[in-house]
Amino acid sequence: MLAIGAFAGLREAEIQRLDWSEVDLARGHIEVTAAKAKSAKRRIVPIQPNLAGWLVLYGSMKGRIVPEGARSKLERVRRAAELTRWPVNGLRHSYASYRLAAIHDAPRVASELGHTSPQMLYSTYRELVLPEEAERYWTIEPQPFEGEKVVAFSTS
Predict the structure, then answer these.
(1) Fewest 10 Å CB contacts: which of 3, 46, 116, 150?
(2) What number of other Cβ atoms are within 10 A of residue 141's Cβ?
(3) Contact, 25 vs 56, CB < 8 A?
């Protein structure tokens, strides 16, 4: 759910309503149905290569994206990252800034975000991120799993 927010730019409420059947790794997109979109209009959001790396292990999942107990899990992530607060749609805002810096195509980014116009992108997100920062952002990928590094934790 965090990777989808950061690398597909979905709103938190859209992710809460999203189902694994709407994540199509084979075709490389996420479908946000009209019933689940804030704008009540269907959109297709491309799965970026780094997002595909985060999602590949979940390709056979069924049901809702957001797991039970997600709120407490996010709170643990926030504390571990030493954030004083978790901004509403903060990952979506990061997506908009870094995507715009990477591709310099506001109409396309606006469409991916479900906006009817690129005007807000120009006024809010333009030139916030340097190109080299955008390049680094879009290469954030999971580390390969190495079973011998898994550590069992005691329940006591």
Answers:
(1) 150
(2) 14
(3) yes
CA 10 from centroid of its chain's CA atoms: 6
Partners of 64 in the beta sheet? 19
Contact 131, 101 (CB under 8 A): yes
pTM of the model: 0.85
In terms of Cα–Cα distance, which of 64, 87, 56, 82 is closest to 1? 64
- Cα–Cα distance, 133 to 36 (Å, whole number): 31
* Residues in Cβ contact with 86 at an 8 Å cutoff, skipping those fewer than 6 apart: 74, 78
- Helix ranges (H only) for 45-144 are 49-55, 70-80, 90-103, 106-113, 119-124, 131-137
Question: What is the rounded CA–CA span in Å between residue 128 and residue 96?
Answer: 10
DSSP, res 32: E
- How is residue 134 written in tokens? 């955008």
- State the CB neighbour count (10 A cutoff) for residue 4: 24
The residue with tokens 């075709």 is 27
- How many other β-carbons are positioned within 10 Å of the β-carbon of residue 55? 21
Q: What is the pLDDT of residues 5-19, one digit of tens each?
A: 999 999 999 999 999
Strands in 29-32's sheet, in edge-to-edge order, are 23-24, 29-32, 43-46
Tokens 């407490």 belong to which residue? 72
